[in-house]
Design brief:
Layout lengths: L10 E2 L6 E2 L9 H12 L3 E2 H11 L5 H13 L3 E6 L2 E6 L3 H17 L3 H11 L4 H15 L14
Antiparallel strand pairs: 1-2, 3-5, 4-5
Length: 159
């Protein structure tokens, strides 16, 4: 088995109505994300270094809590490990960008029915954006629309 055997990606049809699962994807909790970020940043990484980095960010981390979460991530096939004597060294079995994409899709589905437009409208309406941020968003949206078939009467994001 390789790292790519346990991706977090989903294949989605063009209508966004039917999702096809190609590989099992682990559901990673918010606390488990903290550990995964450390492992993605530097791997392979020994458990003691993971704990040191967690404690540097928040002194309340306990070794047993970390070991429990590492065991869960191994069980979920998000992490793999190698025993080197008394040292356990961890490596990711899932790609960070794929997991981020999966978490983003899950958020979009749960809160906005899978539609990007209401989500974007919500956040743009709730946040105080600078003129530069608005311009950056326009540029991103225009780039996303480039190369796609223009529909008659469809307006550009440029104003």
């Amino acid at each position: 088995m390789t790292r790519n055997d346990y991706g977090c990606s989903l294949f989605i049809d063009y209508t966004r109505k039917h999702r096809l699962k190609m590989k099992s994807k682990p559901k990673i909790s918010e606390t488990e994300w903290e550990i995964m970020r450390i492992v993605w940043m530097k791997h392979p990484v020994p458990a003691r270094e993971i704990l040191a980095r967690l404690k540097a960010a928040d002194a309340s981390w306990h070794p047993k809590t970390m070991r429990t979460l590492l065991a869960r991530l191994v069980q979920k096939k998000a992490l793999g490990y190698e025993a080197r004597g008394r040292l356990y060294v961890y490596s990711p079995l899932v790609n960070e960008q794929e997991c981020l994409a999966t978490a983003s899709e899950s958020f979009l589905d749960r809160f906005f029915g899978g539609s990007l437009k209401p989500m974007l409208a919500h956040f743009v309406g709730k946040q105080q954006l600078t003129k530069q941020e608005v311009e950056e968003l326009r540029n991103l949206l225009n780039k996303a629309g480039e190369g796609k078939d223009k529909q008659p009467g469809r307006k550009s994001w440029k104003q």
